[in-house]
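input
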Amino acid sequence: MKLWVFIVPKKDRVWIHVDAEPILDSDGNVRQVVCTFVDFTTRKKAEEELILKNLVFEESIAANSISDVNGIITNINSAFIKIWGYNNKEEVIGKPISEFLEYENETAAIINSLSISGKYSGEYTARKKDNSTFHAFSLATVVYDNSGNIIGYQSSVQDITARHLAESALRESEEKYRTLIEVSLDAIFINQDNKITYINSSGLKLLGAEKPEQILGKSPFDIFHPDFHKIIRKRIKDMIEKNSTADLIEEKIIRLDGVVVDVEVAATPFVFRNKKALQVILRDITQRKKAEETLKNSYTLLSTAGRVAKFGGWNVIMSENRSYWSDEVAAIHEMPAGYCPLVSEGISFYAPEFKDKITKVFTECSQNGIPYDEEMQIITPSGKRLWVRTNGEAVRDKNGKIYKVQGFFQDITEQRLKEKKGIMNKVLMMVMQELFLTGELVVNNEITDRVRANEEIQKLNNELEERALTSERIRSLRHSAILFLTIYEPPSELFTAIHES
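output
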């Protein structure tokens, strides 16, 4: 009788083989039992380990294989069959390992590594049953017996084609990214752990550096003006904590030569070499700032000139049917700056007797492209009547369609009054001259000399000497002279002389 028993003395598990033989008396009854105990714990553990190894070998997702000292495959698992595209083990066992690799030099490299170090770790190109290939990663070791003699080789292989393609795509993407950055006209640097770890050629130029070593390793705060350090710290904190892009803002940097430069800055977080980093883009806006300052000064001068001359510009976008007035045009109309009325609202400012006219000329301009330049009157909200000069011309797109009408607008009220006054003065001079010629006006020598010295009066003298005026005409002129003198307040002695005559 043989029995297998398991005992646990002192908590150590021990496997024992028991062989028992009964001793019988003359009646056939068992008188005693002779037992033999054999400890086979070591062998049992070895069997368990072998079972476990076989299980791991077989069930592994990696392609496992065992070969003899000649490199002939003696065993494989299911994953090997699947990865290499075979149907069963029999198609593989008995073939040399080299048959499953695409290139001889890679096979030689594996054999050389196993011979020297007893192990191999690396990538190679594997050849499937259908002769297609895949990228493989392999771990291989030499198998020794208890005497230290080589009895074979074992290897574990993974298909890393997908990973290899992803890495290749990533490298290609990185190369394209690097190329784009290098040819970018904007300055770009990478901030990682508060240090500049990369900068492109435009960045070197902007900072006045000749080579990257002059910038790499510096803190971004070394190149930005101290006035902006506080806001930069906040932007960096927000980008890292919220993983959000920092909006474009204007800042100042300090070149290596100490020159301060105006820049626009935008930044975004990303992963660079497996670590969080910030990509910072800078654009030199020095020339733009100068142009803006020049434009601002020009606008100030034009605004001042327009205010003094009471002159401004306007345009109408036809698709919007809305007028856009300069500040001075709005001021002439007694409206606030930025006032943009509809066309009908703009026309409503014109005096009733001019509304039809402005409507007509604007319509002809906007529809047929006929320009206009007219003097009309408007009435402001406070009731003032102003004489204005308005000019308009059509603007066409590339297809010849009128899409805008634009022009200038000027308050000419004072100019009109001066012109009217000039005309009245001439009439007054004519009246006075006729009175002189007829003897109806007598003043002291000082006034007479002053009046006759005027060139305009001399011209009138030449004309009036040839004309004969009737007494009725003289009386009419005398009345007109008194009226004009009353309006324009001439010297009192001149007014008295005319009045008495």
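quick obs: DSSP finds 15 helices and 18 strands in the chain.
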